[in-house]
Write a structure and sequence with these properties.
With about 180 residues, the protein is mostly beta strands. It is built from one helix and 14 strands, in the order H-E-E-E-E-E-E-E-E-E-E-E-E-E-E.
């Protein structure tokens, strides 16, 4: 078959296909009734089910979530985990103690290294530590007062004050200083 014949055959095939296509619809329009509103068709909505056997998702520590409204901090496995609004201090709170981690300006040397943690017990015993709280699921607290596990947490721009509700002992934590009471 020559090129001219192939081209002619292709053009005939395209013309035959296009002949079957039309922009005209046979028939005549009818208006039906005077009511010209669109019909309503129900739209199915996906159902939401809450899993009953799966544990709740834990926020990534690298992206802390804001603390919930109100003054009660969430408790997970007997602990409340917080990060200050500045992002400079993270703390782990349980019924007996509070431990905070930060790059303190003037902390003592512990085991040959600059202490980056401080712990206070409900009876007022303060201990400097060298370590890391690890991958804890913190919530970011704002500058206000919170409660968790028998402790009152008063967060301000100057620092965060932890007071044991039963004993009155606690500590004030800031990057520049830590004061036990």
């Amino acid at each position: 078959m020559t090129t001219t014949r192939r081209l002619a055959a292709a053009l005939l095939a395209v013309a035959a296909l296009l002949a079957g296509c039309s922009t005209v619809t046979d028939g005549r329009p009818e208006s039906g009734s005077a009511d010209l509103t669109e019909p309503t068709v129900p739209t199915p909505r996906p159902s939401r089910t809450t899993p009953t056997s799966e544990p709740p998702l834990v926020p990534e520590p690298s992206t802390p979530t804001p603390a919930p409204p109100g003054d009660q901090l969430p408790i997970e496995n007997g602990y409340a985990y917080i990060e200050t609004k500045s992002g400079k201090t993270r703390c782990q709170i349980d019924a007996d103690s509070v431990g905070c981690e930060a790059q303190f300006v003037d902390s003592p040397t512990v085991d040959g290294g600059q202490a980056n943690g401080v712990r206070i017990t409900a009876d007022g015993t303060q201990t400097w530590v060298l370590g890391n709280l690890g991958d804890i699921p913190t919530v970011t607290i704002d500058y206000r007062t919170y409660r968790a596990l028998g402790w009152t947490i008063d967060a301000t721009e100057a620092g965060t004050r932890f007071t044991n509700d039963a004993t009155g002992h606690g500590m004030f934590v800031a990057i520049e200083r830590v004061d036990a009471f």
